Records
---
Amino acid sequence: MPRSVLAQTGSAGIYTCVDASGRRITSDRPITQCLDREQHELTGSGTVKRVIPPSYTAEERARLEAERRREAEIQARIADERRRDKALLLRYPNKAVHDKERAEALAQIDAVALAVNRRVETLQDQRRDIDSEMEFYQKDPAQAPAWLRRKLEDNQQEMDTHRRFLQAQADEKARVGARFDDELARLRKLWQEFGVQQP
């Protein structure tokens, strides 16, 4: 850089860039012809004080911001996955621990289903008794006493409710089993990655 330019600016900053046509421009303030490209601010002695990035249009800034957000989301997902993996390894240091928790979770669902099935059996016994009483009114069930018709209706409603509940329990058991399957597939990779020996 010519000493005359340095002498003229004294301790003030000097801005330099190469414009779109390849000309090097030097000025004592940011250069408008180089807003779309990198500029260097130099000290009075000619060393680079800072690099000024290009000034982007609103559309370009929006695009860059969207890219930064996407990158941040990707990094956040990666960090979240690492945290989940770490928590999974802490919770299940080996397959035996995972198998035990799976068995306990499924046993709880089975215990609830067993209790409901016992109630269903009781309802079925009640229904047989109700049906026996209704035999007297086979030709015209509307002639059955109101208390007997109500008893029949209540029995049917409770039976339907319990059957729906049992189906929900079966669905839950399948969901829990699938979750443990997914966890085990992930854990196998993690155990292998971290050299965890399985018994």
Note: The first helix runs from residue 3 to 9.
---
Amino acid sequence: MTQDDSTQEPSHEHLAPLSKKERRVLGTLIEKSLTTPEYYPLTIKALTTGCNQKSNRSPLSSYDEYDAEEILDGLRSRGLIAAVQTAGGRAERYRHLLRDQVGWKNASLAIMAELLLRGRQQLGELRSRANRMATIDSLDQLREELRQLMQNGYVQASGDLHRRGIEVDHGLYLDTEQNKSQGLSSAPGQSPQQSPRQSVKDVSEPQTESINRAGQSNEQQSGQTAAISEPQIDYRDEIEELKNMVLQLEDRISELERQLGV
């Protein structure tokens, strides 16, 4: 058995479906570990703020710190997160353990974080959004990452990944949320029964790809279109990240003041 086999097989069984709140907390921890590693692990306060931020979240949430603490306890009992004590800090901080438990590298972590935080989306959108956390140079690289995740049941798609207008989503919904998986399959290359939503997107897709560049394929055009539509979202993301950084700095200053008796 190879080293990869020894880490992947048991981890697939370990990562069972997650509740909506667990997905939001875990997705937020993944996101912050990649976008603001200097302020990670997160305090309860910073984590709650991250869960409730206005950008990169669908739907929006309004959790409080008691909600976050309860969710963290459940995730910790499943071995998916850990509490750590930083040097000189009094407040516990939390980090995810998915690198060890599941074996995901940065690109897979970024993809799963976006799907856990936003849900179902097209490939061009997913690449543009996940690329802010980990480098995904092309749609072909994204497809390869998705295929590996699909093989373990972590991702599902509305058809072959090379088809235009394809949508992907995570595969960690609870059984009671089966409607979330309508029209999606976790088997690479398998085309599930087309849902009404997919039919509409397939018809309208040529209009969304009206920006052309000589010598580029339809898949590349789709990625460009998503990238062109993202700048305003990216600015909002940066503002939210700055807000989170300020909150985390306030936490550290408060801890330092308590230590100094100020």
Note: DSSP finds eleven helices and five strands in the chain.
---
Amino acid sequence: MRTRVKFCGLRRAEDVKLAVSMGVDAIGLVFYAGSKRAVEASQAAELCVHMPAFVTPVGLFVNPTAQQVESVLTQVPLGLLQFHGEEEADFCQSFGVPYIKAVRMRDSERLLHAVSAHPLARGFLVDAFNAQSHGGTGTSFDWSLLPEVDQPIILAGGLGPDNLAQAIAQVQPYAVDVSSSIESVPGVKDADRMRAFLEQVRLADQSNG
């Protein structure tokens, strides 16, 4: 099975158009004010214009209020919600939009608990644990911590040229998620790094096929 790819933290139309032309599956839009990659709803709506059918716009939130999520949804045609905080399942399900739940991996129990607590999640994004950050740190974690689960796993955290092939071979994730390693500065993507990342995913899939 082909490994899907999500580019996260895009803020510029030229980056979105380039990512789409390269064949990315999903594009993450950050609605968390504490992030250097945050976008306003009006800005995100303009970016979504450049996402054709079968490229999913994903809205990333961290412990938002229901009003904040609903406000974004009235302006931005998100196909998937991504929750990175301590959100409960009832909250995540309440917006009528499919969602994935992020898990900051400190031990295997964290993922097992999340899977049990979020039975309707469409997948689980696993990232490095950092007490001061909810993602986007550019650091990896010990993939051997990941227990076997039936739900789709989206692998994130410090993926790049030095470890991407190993990550896909070892974890065999449904998808990989990348932000900092394809940037020149936070929120500004680098065309060569984006292209190289996608090519490395394709080569890894061929090797594992």
Note: The domain at 4-208 is CATH 3.20.20.70 (TIM Barrel).
